[in-house]
Here is the input.
Amino acid sequence: MPKARTRLRYTARTADKHELYEAAVQNPDADLDFVTRVYRQERGRAPQAIREDFCGTGYTSATWVRRNPANTAWGLDLDRKTLDWGRKRHVAPLTPDQRSRVTLLERNVLNPGPETSRVDAVLAMNFSYWIFKTRDDLRRYFEVVHGSMNSKGVFFLDHYGGWQAMRAQTDRKRCRGFTYLWEQRWFGPVTFDFDCRIHFEFPDGTKMRDAFIYKWRQWQIPEIRELLAETGFRKSIVYWEGDDDNGGGNGIYRKATNPEVCPVHLAYIVAVR
Ligand SMILES: C[S@@+](CC[C@H](N)C(=O)[O-])C[C@H]1O[C@@H](n2cnc3c(N)ncnc32)[C@H](O)[C@@H]1O
Here is the structure.
């Protein structure tokens, strides 16, 4: 007998914002495939110990320890409720062995602590480091990362920009059972202050407004690379997402020094210790 198709009945009255965020925004396996490929290119072996800064629900950390029995992960975030949600959703279902290799900590990334140091790779994804709004603050964060990896450490950040990232606009994306909205509410051309919001809309007409609010500074790639160099990283490499010939990205990232100008781009910045 064919299986009955499960219909997703999301509504703002009951939907869980973390579940929607993860479905709409995150793809831990894609990030981790990239991290593994590039780390191997730089260091000649696969990374094992990672730290996920700004880990949120720890989805990426939990995925990492599932992928290989030698993998370990620390996840750091300031938000206790988000961490607790992630511990239930992602850590509790792991096997005892997997669980013993992942720890989510309520901790400021500026004070990661000695036990989370000497890792092979640190990841700061979804532009979370844009929380630091001055050169001094971002430099301090990069210094901490540099000092808290082993001598073969590689630091992975992501980046988005382009002229459409420098204005107020809202993008909508249809997901299974809901619509995801990315609102750039305000961009300041003098300060590069960047106020962004995530909203969700549902088939029954209900809406979840301001599910997530980000008050960032939009950093540009040369500024980031200069700070990485100032804090002791030997080199930084930009990997640029290719285009799908339809106005979107194709999910394939290649080293780029002079890529084509795009209205919006996604990139990874890889800093090698
Ligand atoms: C954009 S979310 C990123 C979540 C997840 N890493 C991802 O890739 O989707 C930013 C997260 O950073 C956390 N955060 C902000 N400042 C922090 C800090 N100084 N130390 C640790 N976590 C911080 C917030 O609590 C929030 O969960």
Observations:
- Residues 184 and 196 are 5 Å apart (CA to CA).
